[in-house]
Amino acid sequence: MSSTGFFGNLAPVRFEGPDSDNPLAYRHYDKDALILGKRMEDHLRPAVCYWHSFGFSGADPFGGQTIERPWFGDDLAHARVKADAAFEMLHLLGVPFFTFHDRDIAPEGTSLREYGKNVREMAGYLQKKMADTGIRLLWGTSNLFHDRRFMAGAATNPDPDVFAYSAAQVKTAIDVTHQLGGANYVVWGGREGYETLLNTDLKRELDQLGRFIALIVEYKHRIGFPGTILIEPKPQEPTKHQYDFDVASVFGFLARYGLEREVKVNIEVAHAVLAGHSFEHEVALAIALGVFGSVDINRNDYQSGWDTDQFPTNAAEMAVAFYHLLKSGGFTTGGLNFDARIRRQSLEPEDLLHGHVGGLDACAHALKTAAKLIEDGRIGRFVEDRYAAWNSPEGKAILAGKRTLEEIAARLDREAFEPKPKSGRQEYLENLLIRHL
Ligand code: XLS
Ligand code: NI
Ligand code: NI
Fold this sequence. Notes:
By secondary structure, the protein is of the alpha/beta class. The protein is built from 16 helices and twelve strands.
């Protein structure tokens, strides 16, 4: 029997190899196995999220609670039971990290002051558990979207009092993230967007958001928080249009407010799909722009158009993204957060384990595939060869700004050459991916 009793007789999940038939064993995730010379756990840095795993009641827009939990309740005693169950699950799964919003770990109470007190109290409780188990915090964040005071946004609210309230709430969340040694602090603009432009001053709201993020960055430096500040892009839902739409928009926003060297992105697979991109695209672009930070690895449903936050199952989808990640040197402070929830009908405690076991296994499978693509080397060499002509003296001179438009045109006049098109060989390259899957 587990110590909280919640997980009954379920045993810790072990690696049993690809041939195992045990549904609660890892077939690919072998945390100490070396992949390209680094432990699998150190590559993936997986994290369980507090909100979906321990806060989700099964409610959807059409119906209420389906899932029962002994820790549902709004006081510190319930919050402690919740924390006990969370750490028990982290232990059963052998997952090294967790993530939380302030609201997930502590009851709100009746005032911001009481909320802050509760959050600090629960942070102390978590700190002891972390010290006892060695489990670490991948990131903390603040819930600035649930309460009705945030209905018109937090930092982008027309009312400066809501901005101030949000700033005060974030300060506590950063303080406890720092206290718990969090590797990152995440800002997801839950309601930083608009429902209609008829009531919105777009420029003003962007300026407010720019100031809010700058306040966070300034505070981080003042208190010496060594973690990375991350913005999590999402195109819409809950608002019609969210300002942190995708990686490209977030980069443009950061550059406009001079924050592009201070803030990175937390890319969620599901949000990439909602924005009309692939996960691979968002990862590759963030790396190219120098703002890649971390990942929420939950997938979307490809038909529903909602943020369905499902556990990942598609190893091929992740492998192509992990390929770019490995090529860039892998995670630094980031990791793979399972911002994923079980379905409304998944009522048993063991359903929580099935979700994470399958999800983590799919990630490990993707990691192994990505590593094989790197070891194989043919994709990398193909891309290098494809651009090799830019290493010629003329190619270098053009990029270094040493040629004018007239000089380039004059050369064409002199040499009268015709460029020779070459095959992009997409089918051949895709087959290499399939071969290593
Ligand atoms: C919602 C977001 C949220 C962030 C944390 O869609 O994914 O869960 O990850 O606030
Ligand atoms: Ni999401
Ligand atoms: Ni997320």
